[in-house]
Fold each of these.
Amino acid sequence: MTDQTHLFIHKDRAAAEPVRPTRAKPSFSLHRLPDAVSGWLLSLPLALVLFFFLVLPIVMIVVVSFWGATEFSIYPAFQFDNYEFLLTSPVTYQVFLNTIKYALITWAFTLVIGFTVAYFLAFHVKTLTWQIVLFLLCTIPFWTSNIIRMISWIPFLGRNGIANSTLISMGVIDAPLDWLLFSDFSVILAFVHLYTLFMVVPIFNTMMRIDKSLIEAAYDNGASGLQTLTNVIIPLTKPGIMIGSIFVVTLVMGDFITVRFMSGSQSANVGRLISNDIALLQYPSAAATAVILLITVLLVISILLRFVDIRKEL
Amino acid sequence: MAKALDLELVATTKMYGDTVAVDAINHRFAAGSYSCLLGPSGCGKSSTLRMIAGHESVSIGDILLGGSNVTDLPPARRGTAMMFQNYALFPHLSVIDNVAFSQKMKGVDKPVRLKKAHQLLELVDMDAYAQRLPAQLSGGQQQRVALARALITEPSVLLLDEPLSALDPFLRIKMRLELKKLQRELGISFIHVTHSQDEALALADDIIVMNGGRIEQAGSPRAVFNAPTTEFVARFIGGHNVLQQQGAAVALRADRLLVKKTAGEDGALLTASVRDVEYLGSTVNLALDAGGAGDLTAALTDEAFFHDPIEIGATVFLTWKPEDAHQLAA
């Protein structure tokens, strides 16, 4: 039997690979250079941009993070004072923990909402026209600035805001709810509002590439709707979920303005720690915090990538 | 395996809005037979198959399997299984998990379902590839896996939607033989949708020629090829000439048209000029222009042709036996 199967592959492969017509080489001057040289040349512009605008600033931050500072001056040095202060202060751990808490909760909500919206768009909306229309509808909030969208929550959620007055007039509550605004609730609400689309887009994109006959095949094999979701759609949507997760987690962990506005300066995350240091001209301390934050974010992403090999899935 | 059952379509109709895709067709697929739904694209053959599979709702009419009405049952509970045109293998699952998928959905224990999946893979000679992903297989191998995945549900009727169209010609003929062999061994009914008359003639016990949502003709391959009943069937099945004779259309097989260089004593029924000569190996096709009777094709054996070659532009005299001309429905 094995001999026979070997014969099969051989024949199949021979039949599946048509002879490629040899293409005439274009008489383009780059072709006279060795492939290695032209390859390096072609990647040079992007490499330069990345070097000057990504690598160099990060190197600068790392260098400055070792500098020293007094109340009125900063001086070049190589000392671990900033890191020592940062890593021995309980405030740091509390703030990092808070940042990770925001990231996790926002991630969970955006994932559930984003997946549901993408699923609806990809599998329940039947015509491409309606898919495009509804998708564009999702992007409309993005036509205004982040800050405006954030601030517009304040009159809605405030003590005498629309939410509270509506709930009181409906008789659901007797006194205004205090936790609606300037709380963790409002911070996370704003994050979810701001970043859900970053989850919808990649998930919708991968879902659209799922062959619809796979869903039929699952149905043909006796899978229920829920079984199709867990056994076919979610595994095939994993790359989109991962890309969306990376977007949301990095955006939330790097944010400082949302937390400031929506918590009424009552909560802190790492971004605010850095922004406070900068306001006090404590650049070395800010740089050290930024380095630690960068390492934390990279760790989180590498953990996420453990679950799915994105390069393989794309 | 499952026992073979008769499948019957009773005035089965499919409408999309106002368009009638399948128009009240009646047909009985005998238990354990190989049937081909044959027709051009848009003739309703795929809609018919998808209604039998349960992937398309039936607008009016019924589908009976072994005497019970399955019209409104979900696909997995009808006793049918479908093999999709592009195979629809789950790209994230290995070959063995693809085959075991339906068992997993039923909640069968892992060792039991894997054992059964291995048996099915052995049946289609793919057990050696159990751990591969579908993307690592060739088209023919993917098809075997898709077959195994459909057969593990022990269907009474296996539905195949253009199963060979994605393969190259060489592999298509090879898989054709294997499909037929598998059907004989399993003894269940296969219903196979195709637009290729060669495929239908080679495989089927029963050919159902469809056009415009209706069944034009159904019968054994020999009956359909030898005696088409409508002009559509005669033209679609190929190898036929459609002639007007005493005001009625008749079909005449191209190889039953007798071509002579001289009129002869019994007189020619038609004269024609030779427009083209096609050498096809064992036969030679003559493209003929018979004036008022239109364009005709005559198929000569290579032996007969080269014994007395006919050149392009020559005038020839055509006769045929009266019993070879089949009356067509108006």
Amino acid sequence: MAREVVIGACPHDCPDTCSILTTVEDGKAIAVRGNPDHPFTKGRLCVKVNDYQNRVYSDQRLLYPMRRVGPKGSGQFARITWDEALDEIAGRWKAIIAESGAQAILPYSYLGTQGIINGLNVGDPLFNKLGASVCERTFCDSGSCTAYMMTIGHTPGVDPESFVHSKYIILWACNTLSTNSHHWPFIEQAKRNGAKLVVIDPVRTRTARLADWHIPIRPGTDGALALAMMHIIIKEGLTDRDYIDKHTIGFDELAERCEAYTPEFASAETGIPVEDILKLTREYATTPPAVVRIGVAVERHAGGGQTVRAIACLPALIGAWTHVGGGLLQLPIWAFPVNWPGLMRPDLQPETMRVINSWALGPALAGEMPLDPPIRALFVYNANPMAMVSQQQTIERGLAREDLFTVVSEHFLTDTARYADIVLPATTQLEQADIMFSWGHLYLSYNNPAIAPLGEAVPNTELFRRLAKAMDIEDPFFFRSDDAMIADSMDWSSPVLAGITLEELKQKGYMRLTMDAADAWAPHRDGNFPTASGKCEFKSSLAAGGNFVAPLFRQGYGGGQSGEPVDPLPHYLPPNESPRTAPALAERFPLSLISPKSHAFMNSNYGNLPAQVAQAGEQQAVLLHPDDAGPRGIAAGTPIRVFNDRGTFEAFATLSPDVMRGVVVAPAGFWQRSNQRGPTVHALTPTAFADLGHAPTFSDMLVDVAAA
Amino acid sequence: MAYVVTDSCRGCRYTECVTVCPVECFHLDEEMTYIDPENCIDCGGCAPICPVSAIHPSWQMPADKAGWVEINRLRAAETPVVNAKLPPLPGADERARRLAS
């Protein structure tokens, strides 16, 4: 029996990018486990990935190309060959381009795998070359990224491993134990070293339960808290004047702006008592090193961008950056010298591209958006919008269009893939090679393929090689091997890759970027912010150009930005939908709904697999405060309907005082066609963008709940 | 849902599990360890490093071990947390060899 252990890296859209050891016997993967040698992920995986081999060998896997043989959405398909599939795709695309122009084709993708060569940008060169519509992919952190760029630039920020040196840690809208769990031991070590841990969250999550202080906050009001913290810091003289003078711009204007944001104002908005706001601020400003870790959720409301602007100003105000373990942690991805232009190839684009935002898929497909030409072909990979994107019924109506030619590349017949005309089989991480960045630690990873591809599944890289050939493209760039693509994916001349070779990386599976060690990393001790001024910009110079989405999320396209005016100073925008801002709506729908990540699912990944579905409780659960459930006659474990004017979904009630009164929590990820048997939470989510970076606002909605 | 320590631990108590657990959810008595299901985050780190394969996820319990789900819940509530590795119980290696054979 041939037995070997292959080193790889987790492909999922998660900050942790775990080092994985796969045991292979006679060509079959029999187990995966965490790599005990990895300094950050330390031998553990998680509830999603512990049995990854069962995903790979699931009897639900798509292993061959298929063509639809029943009505759209019926899930009836018949096996065809790759040649037949490619001929049909290329034939339809060429005809559509000839009749309507390439903009009638819309690619649709995100981070079903986040490997650098198979992930976010793998299709960009082809669709840029064709001149298809650009899919502006603002699923996650786009508002935060715009705000972050405006304030402190694209800095990796605090090394997550430096948290062991922190003395005051604020996890702000971040349920670490469910969504970033390998960071937890560093936080726990800090606690052992005497640090105080504060969690700001509307829900007493499993992370909040382990904190020294959980501060419940009304959804979408975090900006008011951050602005009031600045008000107090300035008013009480808790600022680091030397740091402000040397390394920031716009302090006087910021101070003037913050005058109105009193603790009383913030208390009325957030529901946090004034004395708690004062205590939090004083402790934060006087307990160095102080660090804030923001999660992805903090941007998902009307003022999400300005919220991140305000939070990103806080560390400079108190000079937190002068300490190892002090500052802000958002996305350390910016430390990785990824060759983004080489991945996206914006140079291949025609002069102007048509941009369609990912959250507008429903209206774009269903003819509810003025589009000339209309979308006639849709190509979906690394994404399952029917489960995860707002206006679910509208998307369904669009996908059901007889004249829409839809191709979906997938592991499984997802809610989206059921509507495809052609389905293509994609490999899992065990069947493909990739190089991985991380947005939660500072190790570059290499994923060695552990097994041969199953059936006729291909990696996304091979998929796009085949599509380029079928579309008669001759440029050799489109036909590079995976090895060549991996070699081209990074700027190997960057100092952070000094001493790192691909050969060694393949063998070790991960290597730390060549930066100061975690016990010395203080990137902004002397300023050096990657902004236009080189300083922390309380008053942002980038605001002059108006609202924008980072080109990384738009296939590298910089044109056609929405450009609405942006206030150069942080300010508070209340939620669109809350009892305070929309009282008439709240008469009918009095509860605020948030839809965080499920502990057992990775977005909609695993929403069809038995082990994770079991751990998610078999059915969609919605958490309610007993005081909200009682008057509605809702008992624990009973079926309920959750609804607003946009839609309805069914769930089972979980009752606990862990959630604030007036707030309901519906973790996302179940599929319509697996256990949910009907619309998911995204049938109710709003379509409005947050103020910056076209972030979604799906933690900013009112609903009501009734016994079913 | 949680991971569950079963009777294979009894008499060995290697406590390798404790070194990998990120949330201090292991408890112990004189004979073995128990996992607190309220704190376990299902990370699965403990199962593969147990020298006697005593730890299973609660949704994949061998049929003859199903009763240990409840025993872990009850005993974890009554026993102290263990957050550092201890020496195994006397005779553990001999017992582990027997279990493996």
